[in-house]
Amino acid sequence: MSDRARWVTVRVHPGGNPEAVAAALFDAGAQGVQELGDSLVTHVPDMAAANALLCAALAASPDARVETEPLPDVDWSVEWKRGIGVQHLDRLKIAPPWLAADLDPATTIVIEPEMAFGTGEHATTRGVVRLLQSVVHEDDRVADLGAGSAVLSIAAAKLGAAHVAAIEIDHDAIANAEANVARNGVADRVVVIEGDASVLLPLVAPVRVITANIISSVLLGLLPAIRDALAAGGAAILSGILLNERDEMLRALDAAGWRVVAEDREDVWWSTTITRR
Amino acid sequence: MAKKVTGFVKLQIPAGKANPAPPVGTALGPQGINIMAFCKEFNSRTQGQDTILPVEITIFSDKSFTFITKTPPAAVLLKKEAGIEKGSGQPNRNKVGRVSRAQVRKIAELKMPDLNCDTIESAMAMVAGAARSMGLEVVD
Q1: DSSP string, A36-67
Q2: Which span out of A24-38, A75-89, A182-196 was modeled with the highest average pLDDT?
């Protein structure tokens, strides 16, 4: 990422009424506020937005003090990257490029850790990769919904899938996904597509396998589209579901005509393979 | 052995909508934790709630973390109860709406676990003060 200033930091010393100032900042467009000592810190894309926050803060608390400064657009995950290791998941491994040199490329998914989700460091990614190994067959067509870094798409390709559509709505994840696909030598089989899964899935259907590592509310909304897109005998792997949501999800899956054929649990997360009844 | 705490971060972010851009990224990035993992878990645990939530994140020496969410800020709850978009810029002169004592009690009961109050009456006094400071009249 470049270090050009993409954000403006707005630091507010709220004076007598910090809660009203925080509320005013949200009213004026802040997407989040950090409480740092006695001050409230937020970030906006430009000075016009910063001035709007300044006016809002002063209106809420006339004795507030506001400071602004440019914030370089940096990759905040650098510190975290230092701790990343190799994930051993049955037949497959996930590794960052600097640890992949001595590993077998046929069974290693190499992911450059960026801000896209799916580095192998999260239990939900590992859960899907474990389940995927008994689901994907040679020459399968696969759709990966909420592909993030494309880690699951690449895993499907390394397990033999002939064609994988990696669908991701977050524009910032696309470049990382494409770079990972190229780095793993599967660009002839994995296509990264930017857009809404519910819109794009019907366009890539029918597929025999669908992976969706998102969150439960989004998964429930996608179930009808997943049902329509699956070929006969197909399976979907869902993840991003908290263990304490499992019972509710099982009821919803049952009511919608799905059968649970495998489950994976790690930490507070639950992943599952489902087929149509 | 208990893990050593190396950081503590307090944020207010919309429920279900954390993303790695600032301020989440800028607050958690220097702590060395997996920002995407935090966003995913926060969004999972808070999905479907249409409100701003305070969240307190504790970071440990092995870069793992835990977090707890608090009740929404009183100002956010008051705006919802009063049906207003924003508070008044001049709360003493310019009233933008009203809330009833019953609504103040309802918010006080919800906020009670996070307020430093022993009785519901003192919690109500705090909520009523917050209401007046944003230009809301408290009526019987």
Answers
A1: ETTEEEEEESSHHHHHHHHHHHHHH-TT-EEE
A2: A182-196
A118-157: b (≥16 Cβ within 10 Å) or e: bbbbbbbbbbbbbbbeebbeeebbbbbbbbbbbbbbbbbb
Q: Which residues, in sequence order, are CB contacts of B116 under 8 Å at separation 6+?
A: none
Interface test with B, best of A6, A10, A33, A61 (most B CBs within 10 A): A33
CA-based nearest distance B140→chain A, Å: 23
Domains parsed from chain A with CATH numbers: 3-76 (3.30.70.120), 84-276 (3.40.50.150)
Q: Enumerate the β-bridge partners of residue A89.
A: A92
Using only C-alpha atoms, what is the Rg of chain A? Answer: 22
% of chain A beyond a pLDDT of 90: 77
Q: Which of A83, A116, A124 sits opposite B63 (nearest CB)?
A: A83
Checking DSSP bridges between strand A207-213 and strand A190-194, what pairing results, if any? unpaired
**Does A17 contact B45 at a Cβ distance shorter than 8 Å?**
no
Query: Residue B108, SS3?
Result: helix
- Comparison of pLDDT for A77 and A99, the residue scoring more: A99
CB A242 within 8 A of CB B45: yes
In 3D space, the residue among A276, A221, A209 whose CA is nearest the CA of residue A249 turns out to be A221
Q: In the prediction, which pLDDT does A269 show?
A: 93
Structure tokens at A55: 């006016």
Q: Which of B9, B26, B59 to mutate to test the interface with A (most CBs of A within 10 A)?
A: B26
The model's pLDDT over B62-99, given as tens digits with 9 standing for 90+, comes to: 778 889 999 999 988 999 999 998 887 778 888 999 99
Helical pair B120-133 and B101-111, crossing angle rounded to 10 deg: 110
CB contact under 8 Å between B22 and A7, yes or no, is yes
Cβ contact A211:A201 at 8 Å? no
Does residue B18 contact residue A60 with C-beta atoms inside 8 Å?
no
Query: β-strands A108-110, A207-213: how paired?
Result: unpaired
Give the number of other CB atoms < 10 A from CB of residue A255.
8
pTM of the model: 0.76
